[in-house]
Structures are given as C-alpha cells and as structure tokens.
Design goal:
The protein has 96 residues and is of the alpha+beta class. Helix content is 32%, strand content 24%. The protein is globular, with a radius of gyration of 13 Å.
Length: 96
C-alpha cells in the first residue's frame, strides 16, 4: 500500500504485536501517519524485536478519527485479554 496522496488527511492508527507463545500482546500508542501500511507494520515489528519482544504477527489497524481508533484499540486489548494474553502497552509511534 502506498502513501496517501498530498492534501489527504493522515490515517489514525495504533499497532498491535501478538506474541501468543509468550502470552503477550504489545499495543502501541495511537498516532497519525500517511505512510504505507507495510512500512508501519515492519517498523513496529523491528522495534519489538530490538527490545527482545518479538511478535509472531504485527498489524496496524486504521480508523477515521481519534475516538474511533481509541475504541478499536481498547476492543483489541479486551479481546486479547479474554483469550488469556497479557496486554503490554508500549510507548511507540510510527516515525519514518
């Protein structure tokens, strides 16, 4: 996925890294970005790995606004906790 075209508002996102074998799910801060999805997911995965917290799967869901992305982030945390994972908030935001 490429970056958004000029003049288009940035996407609201957070990233999630699932390390189910370790019983953890890492959840980033909410942020905005026009960068491509692949770049954001790779950056989050690399950041976790550099801290010895590798995730088997990373994703960076988007939403139209801050309230919607916060609700989605909260729901992702609830869902993963209900599956027995420990939610670990991490102070990370995409920065190219």
């Amino acid at each position: 996925m490429g970056s958004a075209s000029a003049g288009q508002p940035p996407d609201w996102r957070y990233c999630l890294g699932v390390a189910a074998d370790d019983g953890e799910v890492f959840v980033s801060d909410v942020y905005t970005s026009n960068a491509g999805l692949d770049a954001q997911e790779k950056a989050f995965s690399d950041w976790l790995e550099a801290r010895n917290s590798p995730a088997k799967r990373t994703l960076c869901p988007r939403a139209d606004n801050r309230d919607a992305v916060n609700r989605a982030r909260d729901e992702a945390i609830r869902y993963n906790v209900s599956r027995g994972l420990h939610a670990v908030p991490v102070a990370w935001r995409y920065s190219p």
